[in-house]
Amino acid sequence: MDNSLAELGDRLRSLRARHGLTQEEFAQLAGIGYKFYQDIEGARKKEIWLSTVERLAAPYGLRAWQLLTPDMPEGSKVARKKVVSSRVHRK
């Protein structure tokens, strides 16, 4: 398994947990399928497109390169508000 994809999965899991989201909630925010997201977070995908990384970064107010950087930022406060707001409006 490619170590960088495993690291990406770990970063995604950490960010998602910090924002209090389930995998299904985050997949919906990112506009990707739930099972597809599970495979990315679980490092079961052998490769993913840059456009997918951009979709994964956007709900957190990050750019793709920030999500791929080892010392990844937590995401902006504005993005946190968007994520929380999205959760409230779905209920």
From TrEMBL:
It comes from the Bacteria. Transmembrane segments: none annotated. CDD domains: HTH_XRE. SMART domains: HTH_XRE. PROSITE patterns: HTH_CROC1. Pfam families: HTH_31. One of its GO terms (molecular function) is DNA binding. Residues 12-68 form the HTH cro/C1-type domain. This is Helix-turn-helix domain-containing protein. The lineage of its organism: Bacteria, Pseudomonadati, Verrucomicrobiota, Opitutia, Puniceicoccales.
